[in-house]
Task: inverse folding
């Protein structure tokens, strides 16, 4: 069987950054496997502006951002295979993929980086009430149809879910001549960035209804009407609050889920992010298998995906050189009061210059303290005026703060001030 | 006094601007400039796509090189939709210059081989 030092599954932002960094850290024998016909992942269809402000101090469109990394991959002569779907991986790191030129190929890798991105929740995930006619489509799929192939999903559109993809699509469809009737969000707050509500909805007078969701889809062959109803605190529809919209399309923007089916086959421990549990080296519980980007936890800003990819690339290089080991004696990081998840979920080694923790809050909060506690003693705390679930938070503990972790537990929680 | 969200970067600061154009709530100078422009002459960058003649079912992405008046967004879109280009395309290629005398060019943002 052919052997490769490092196999990277997925050639999106995370995978390309990981490959570039691993190469720069002395790993020469790398292979990126990408199932699509281009490198770049989801950014190929994100033609809007807003990428690269942290990375390049410039505001780029998705394709511009990704092209800078494709260029580096090529300049560094990092091999990649397109149209190559990874079908299986094993615990001892045998990777099986297939494409139309090579057929089915098995490779043995020393290390694997998972960078497979995420997928969109569909109608089934929320048991969408009513007809299952055509015209119900996820926002990302509609984005791909429109921006890559030039097909408009519909003429009169209702959008369910106020995530960023839905908001971006509201503007895009409007500019292309469709009528976007409204965006409906079941939560009492929006899940998208404020800036996207301003420039994608307010600019075009598209109403955003909060605490409202689809109570019925009506239509024989194609969507004809969508009924929206108010929900109470228990997310139950309130009778008598129905609003009726005549439309031909219902766009769903109701959340993204890490794409990890390959990891489920090898007893990889999963976390509340729906991605793998990882340690401070972004390594899963399976020796030498790393994860980064949207398949680890869903990011809203690609610059942070790139950063995480680099970290995984660097760590995989260390692993290949035999410089890090997965012990079973780690510190467990748990999400306490008000925190939805924390990455990493485990710490192997406290001897870092600094360690960044990434997390999301469960609901919007004002004026809180984010407290890191070990063994009931405070390790560090940070004051934050506003935290919202749609923004991933990153907090860094320095060497001194890390040295205060004295037990096998670290908890991150919110406290009122 | 007017209040709105800064759209210059994903941070989305809540800006306030008074009648003398004094801006508060911004975390950086770009926010102050944006607020002043937003109350005097609001502008937006437009991103869209244009057809690629010699490829089937394929579009290439474009943007306006600078922000254009907000009120002209739909007119600019009409012009963009008239354009078609031929592959290969390169980032930075100009597909249409000075669209509707706004001073903005329509620039390609994607490499197509
Ligand atoms: C629709 C959308 C809009 C966004 N808008 C913005 C924005 O405005 N600004 C911003 O900063 N960020 C935005 N983001 C966030 C950011 O762009 C993404 O989080 C980032 O690009 C994700 O990178 P990734 O490499 O983790 O995943 P992806 O880009 O999804 O890459 C994963 C790659 O893995 C491949 N793959 C998956 N499974 C396999 C397999 N079995 N075999 C081989 N290959 C496989 C896929 O084909 C894909 O190319 C957006 C995200 C989405 C989804
Ligand atoms: S004020 Fe500055 S930091 Fe705040 S959103 Fe605007 S550009 Fe970003």
Result:
């Amino acid at each position: 069987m052919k052997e490769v030092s490092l196999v990277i599954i997925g050639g999106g932002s995370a995978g390309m950054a990981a490959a570039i960094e691993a190469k720069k850290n002395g790993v020469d024998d790398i292979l990126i496997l990408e199932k699509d016909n281009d490198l770049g992942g989801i950014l190929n269809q994100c033609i809007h502006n807003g990428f690269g402000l942290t990375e390049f101090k410039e505001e780029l469109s998705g394709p511009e951002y990704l092209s800078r990394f494709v260029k580096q991959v090529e300049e560094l002569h990092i091999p990649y295979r397109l149209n190559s779907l990874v079908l299986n991986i094993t615990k001892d790191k045998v990777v099986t993929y297939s494409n139309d030129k090579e057929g089915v190929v098995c490779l043995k890798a020393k290390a694997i980086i998972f960078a497979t991105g995420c997928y969109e929740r569909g109608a089934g995930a929320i048991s969408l009430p009513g007809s299952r006619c055509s015209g119900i489509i996820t926002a990302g799929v509609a984005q791909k149809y429109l921006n890559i192939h030039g097909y408009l999903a519909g003429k009169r559109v209702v959008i369910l879910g106020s995530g960023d993809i839905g908001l971006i699509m509201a503007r895009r469809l409007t500019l292309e001549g469709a009528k976007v009737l409204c965006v409906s969000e079941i939560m009492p707050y929006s899940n998208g960035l404020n800036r996207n509500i301003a420039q994608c909805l307010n600019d075009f007078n598209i109403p955003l209804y909060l605490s409202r969701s689809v109570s019925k889809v009506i239509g024989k062959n194609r969507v004809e009407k969508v009924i929206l109803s108010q929900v109470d605190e228990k997310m139950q529809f309130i009778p008598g609050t129905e609003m009726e919209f005549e439309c031909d399309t219902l766009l769903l923007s109701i959340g993204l889920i890490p794409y990890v089916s390959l990891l489920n086959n090898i007893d990889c421990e999963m976390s509340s992010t729906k991605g793998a549990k990882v340690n401070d080296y972004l390594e899963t519980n399976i020796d030498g298998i790393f994860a980064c980007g949207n398949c680890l936890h869903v990011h809203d800003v690609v610059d942070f995906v790139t950063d995480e990819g680099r970290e995984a690339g660097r760590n995989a290089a260390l692993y290949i050189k035999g410089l890090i080991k997965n012990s079973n004696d780690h510190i467990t990081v748990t999400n306490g009061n008000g925190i939805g998840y924390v990455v990493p979920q485990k710490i192997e080694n406290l001897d870092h210059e600094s360690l960044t923790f990434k997390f999301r809050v469960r609901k919007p909060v004002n004026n809180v303290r984010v407290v890191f506690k070990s063994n009931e003693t405070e390790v560090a705390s940070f004051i934050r005026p506003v935290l919202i679930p749609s923004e991933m938070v990153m907090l860094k503990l320095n060497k001194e703060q890390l040295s205060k972790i004295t037990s096998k537990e670290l908890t991150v929680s919110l406290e009122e001030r | 006094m007017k209040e709105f969200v800064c759209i210059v970067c994903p941070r989305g600061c809540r800006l306030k601007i008074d009648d003398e154009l004094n801006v508060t709530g911004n975390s950086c100078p770009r926010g102050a400039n944006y607020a002043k422009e937003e109350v005097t002459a609001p502008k937006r960058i437009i991103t869209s796509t244009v057809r690629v003649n010699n490829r089937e079912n394929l579009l290439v992405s474009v943007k306006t090189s600078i922000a254009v008046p907000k009120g002209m967004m739909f007119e600019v879109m009409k012009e963009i939709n008239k354009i078609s280009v031929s592959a290969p395309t390169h980032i930075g290629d100009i597909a249409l210059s000075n669209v509707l005398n706004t001073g903005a060019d329509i620039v390609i943002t994607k490499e197509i081989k």
